[in-house]
Amino acid sequence: MIQLPDSENISDTLGWFLSDETICFLGTGMSNIVSELGSFYFYPYGQNHRIARVSNGRLITTKATQSVNLKTGVEVGFLAAKILKKPNVESYGLAELAGEVGMDTEEPISECPDWNAKVFSDEDVKYAVHNAYTSCVIGNKLFDTL
């Protein structure tokens, strides 16, 4: 669980991790997450690395930044619809998707947490971990059917 900073800058390690095309991020709300993460920047060569260029006869240096390039965010419902060849399951919630692959699960709390909160409650963290784990298990079960 990663709480993003208020600024648009994130750590280099997190930036590289999120931009790694060999990792597929599977979950719910992925289109929004991918869109939001695209507005974050990191310093791929360290904060002291600068790029020099000439503009109007003057030498200008700027910090070398790179935007997060998350291309591998997949909605778990979309994956289920494609693999199971059931277009209607794309709009299912996690509990319903879990049922489609033979799992029995319930949400840990009835209400989705406020992800913009500065501090998360224990129940909020349980909700996030439950969703991440359930998405992972659903994904594995779906790929096992191929």
General description of the model:
The structure is a single chain. Helix 3 (about 75-85) runs parallel beside helix 5. This protein has a single domain, classed as Nucleotidyltransferase, domain 5. A two-stranded parallel ribbon has the order 1-6. A hairpin with a 2-residue loop joins strand 3 (about 50-55) and strand 4. The model has no long low-confidence stretch (mean pLDDT about 85). With about 150 residues, it is an alpha+beta fold. The protein is about 40% helix and about 15% strand. The protein has helices spanning about 10-20, 30-35, 75-85, 95-100, 120-145, and strands spanning about 25, 40, 50-55, 60-65, 65, 75. One of its GO terms (molecular function) is nucleic acid binding.
Please give the domain count: 1
Tell me the fraction of residues in β-strands, as a range: 15-25%
According to CATH, the homologous superfamily is Ribonuclease H-like superfamily/Ribonuclease H
Structural class: alpha+beta
Could you name the key traits of this structure?
146 residues, alpha+beta, Nucleotidyltransferase, domain 5, two-stranded parallel sheet, two-stranded antiparallel ribbon, nucleic acid binding
Please outline the helices and strands:
Layout: H1 12-19, E1 25-27, H2 30-37, E2 41-42, E3 50-55, E4 58-63, E5 66-67, E6 73-75, H3 76-84, H4 94-100, H5 122-144
Parallel strand pairs: 1-6
Antiparallel strand pairs: 2-5, 3-4
In short, what is this structure?
With 146 residues, the protein is α+β, with helices and mostly antiparallel strands.
